[in-house]
Automatic annotation (TrEMBL):
Statement: the UniProt record of this protein carries the keyword Transmembrane helix: no
UniProt keyword list: Receptor, Signal
Organism whose genome encodes this protein: Jannaschia pohangensis
Homology family: Belongs to the UPF0065 (bug) family.
Protein name: Tripartite-type tricarboxylate transporter, receptor component TctC
Signal peptide as annotated in the record: 1-26
Length: 319
């Protein structure tokens, strides 16, 4: 399923949302606050999305949705706690699905998105893009590829850290284009962006939202996605440009402990549809450089499965 289909589903969310206060809660009537575990620290990107979701839950749920930060071990500490929680509807987890998936593939962790959790739904998606300095001679991906092939092993590229979805997506581009370049990992989006702007590298793989406010210093050449981003419609996808780059992103996904009753899962899924249809939630997401992208539990799981199948060969080739 491509991102355009995701957006169509998101547009259909109001119809689903209408069920959240009736059929869904007729069977599931939570009476205690619901803990939403975020396996990262407060103030980060995933935490910001969770707090936007919690604000929207004030009208979509009859009880508070409480964000609980449990950072550690690249998200595994919080995921382990969430997986071990009672499946009674009082504990869920929201995380960067792509990062969780890649951590599992790279480290073979005890908890993983497929065997340790029920997938409740997706509320958004973080995508990566290829950026160059504004004064770069590269006006297109073809320019970059031609130069890299003329100087194998000489041009430099960066990303937000080894094993990040930006890194794996970037390596997917390198494989698709047949390039040999120097990998220069950085720590986090801000540092990665600063290095690109400063010309320390020839190009970087960075979240598309990192370009906001830096348009005079950066040029975004292509997006790793099935469709153009609603916030940056001028940026083409790699597929549009003729490059078969695997779609590696980081869907913001809500999970539940295994064994949760179907009626609770359906109720929470309907609540997510309700929240993501709210104008206030869309505004909050735009302020974070993103847009709502709701998927129900089955579609969200299928998306992660497709990403697993795309990422596994890239990771295997790196070992």
């Amino acid at each position: 399923m491509d991102r355009r289909s995701f957006l169509n589903i998101a547009l259909a969310a109001p119809a689903l949302a209408a069920l959240s206060g009736t059929a869904a809660f007729a069977q599931w009537a939570p009476r205690r606050p619901i803990n939403l575990i975020v396996p990262y620290g407060a103030g980060g990107g995933t935490d910001s999305f969770a707090r936007a979701l919690a604000a929207g839950a004030e009208s979509a749920l009859p009880v508070p949705l409480v964000v609980v930060n449990r950072p550690g071990s690249s998200g595994i500490t919080g995921a382990t706690e969430a997986a071990g929680a009672r499946p009674d509807g009082t504990t869920f987890m929201m995380t960067s699905g792509g990062s969780f998936l890649l951590t599992y593939l790279l480290r073979d962790t005890d908890v993983n998105p497929f065997d340790s959790f029920e997938t409740v739904g997706q509320i958004g998606d973080l995508t990566t893009s290829l950026m160059v300095p504004a004064n770069s001679p590269y006006q297109s991906i073809d320019d970059l590829v031609a130069d890299a092939k003329a100087r194998p092993g000489e041009i430099r590229w960066n990303h937000t850290g080894r094993g990040s979805f930006h890194h794996i997506a970037g390596q997917g581009f390198m494989n698709a284009a047949g390039l040999d370049a120097v990998d220069v990992p950085f720590d986090g989006g801000g540092a990665t962006r600063a290095a690109v702007i400063g010309g320390q590298v020839d190009f970087g793989m960075i979240g598309i939202q990192q370009a906001a406010g830096f348009e005079s210093e950066l040029r975004v050449l292509a997006l790793v996605s099935d469709a153009r981003d609603p916030i940056a419609t001028e940026v083409p996808t790699f597929a549009e440009l003729g490059y078969d780059v695997p779609i590696i992103s980081s869907p913001i996904t809500v999970f539940a402990p295994l064994g949760m009753d179907a009626e609770i899962l359906s109720g929470m899924e309907a609540a997510l549809a309700d929240i993501t249809s709210q104008p206030e939630f869309a505004t909050a997401m735009r302020e974070l450089g993103n847009t709502p992208a709701f998927l129900d539990g089955a579609a969200a799981r299928a998306r992660l499965e497709a990403m697993r199948d795309a990422a596994a060969p890239i990771i295997a080739a790196m070992e």
